[in-house]
Amino acid sequence: MKRFCWPLIVAALLAGCAGEKGILDRGDYQVDVRRQAQAAYPRVKVLVIHYTADDFDSSLATLTDRNVSSHYLIPAIPPEKGGKPVIWQLVPERDLAWHAGISYWRGATRINDTSVGIELENRGWRNVAGQKHFAPFSAPQIAVLAKLARDIIQRYQINPANVVAHSDVAPQRKDDPGPLFPWRQLAAQGIGAWPNSDRVAFYLAGRAPYEPVDEAELLTLLHRYGYEVKPDLTDAQRKRVITAFQMHFRPARYDGLADAETEAIAQALLEKYGQG
């Protein structure tokens, strides 16, 4: 009789363990997760904002095809269900999506590996008499983006300086989300970086905002903040880096020229958030 009791006791103990907090039953085996390593870090460190440069249906088709993907897609006018705006999640946050492409930020490459990407339905820009004219973003779209972005930032404790534009991490290839994206408005809600106006004035030191400054010195500041600045960049490529910075932090004028206000903004950002 005793021979048959022992297996029953073991089975009962195992059943009790399976229901114990921190013991996960995965069918053919169990996993004890009660002791977690300290040297573990979240994959996600960066939040990248894009525009789709297309309508919603075409954007959804592109982002669910084989060549490109993004974690989220937000329509220009999000539909509502049960009184709440609906957005599309196309890739789980734990998985890598191919949205940033060849990229660089704050010393890191392969930004896809460490980021969540959010695509906003937006037509992008069109050429009018040789000038880029960007499409605006709707208030409902930005409102739900703010809620989503805040959740992601809190979930992964993302540094404000790591909430970036696609053009920040790939300035030679991309313009999105462009100068009409409300970075300042979002920063006021705790989403992303923005310089303090009094510190910009301090570093401007009475100079006229558009007074020319040394381009090499400005690019050194931008590289310290996070942008990729290689020594062999052409004149056009250097201008692209400055333009990307200006579209993000000085959208009133984004001509790619090195001026005093752009320099002062870079200095104020470095003071506030440190270098990458």
From TrEMBL:
Name under which the protein is recorded: N-acetylmuramoyl-L-alanine amidase
Molecular functions (GO terms): N-acetylmuramoyl-L-alanine amidase activity
Claim: Metal-binding is one of the keywords in the record: no
Endoplasmic reticulum listed as a keyword: no
SMART domains: Ami_2
PROSITE patterns on file: PROKAR_LIPOPROTEIN (PS51257)
Signal sequence bounds: none
Superkingdom field: Bacteria
A GO biological-process term: peptidoglycan turnover
InterPro entries listed in its UniProt record: Amidase/PGRP_sf, Amidase_domain, NAMLAA_amidase_2, PGBD-like_sf, PGBDSf
Top-level EC class as recorded in UniProt: hydrolase
EC number: 3.5.1.28
PANTHER family xref list: N-ACETYLMURAMOYL-L-ALANINE AMIDASE AMID
Alphabetical UniProt keywords: Cell wall biogenesis/degradation, Hydrolase
GO cellular component: outer membrane
Catalytic reaction(s) noted: Hydrolyzes the link between N-acetylmuramoyl residues and L-amino acid residues in certain cell-wall glycopeptides
Similarity annotation: Belongs to the N-acetylmuramoyl-L-alanine amidase 2 family.
Domain called N-acetylmuramoyl-L-alanine amidase: residue spans: 32-178
